[in-house]
Amino acid sequence: xxxxxxxxxxxxxxxxxxxxxxxxxxxxxxxxxxxxxxxxxxxxxx
Length: 46
Prior knowledge:
- Helices cover 26% and strands 28% of the residues.
- The protein has helices at residues 2-9, 21-24; strands at residues 30-35, 38-44.
- By secondary structure, the chain is of the alpha+beta class.
- It has one domain (2-44).
- Strands 1-2 form a two-stranded antiparallel ribbon.
- The two termini are 21 Å apart.
- The chain has two helices and two strands.
- The mean pLDDT is 89.
């Protein structure tokens, strides 16, 4: 997770694929949920 945070701190984009949303949420500004190849939601932190 430190690597992902370092990328974010530099203002870079990263595609992080995980089945565990608890890992994704803390380091994301935006994420997209996909189920069986279909987008089921797009979320932004506010």
